[in-house]
Amino acid sequence: MAFGTQDSADEVMHEINMTPLVDVMLVLLIIFIITVPVMKHSVNVDLPRATSVREQLKPQIVRLSVDAAGSYYVNENRVADEALLALLRAEASKNPQPELHIRGDRNVRYERVAQAMALAQQAGLSKIGFITEPKP
What we know:
Number of strands: 5
Distance between the termini: 87 Å
Helix content: 25-40%
């Protein structure tokens, strides 16, 4: 073995192997040959023009408050217990149906809030939510 010579098996190949590149290019060519006629032979249809702006109808919000004494207030107006069901039925008949937000005082008996929820259900209101304040 001489110091200045290398065996032919240990020589580095200096040219790029083109076979994988040609294989990939042929596969891509076949895919394009198949898909282009499918895209060209579609039926031409003159579609109608329409606006795509969504109609923003926000439902009205009815605020039902129960104070510490157990009195009912609808939108800050005091309502008698007997008149509450009729008022809630009138609100439930509106289109779109308003949302009912119930605010109960911290010191009120839960029974009064439960009665308000039962009256809202009897009236036919389906969107009922509770308003609370986060803890500090």
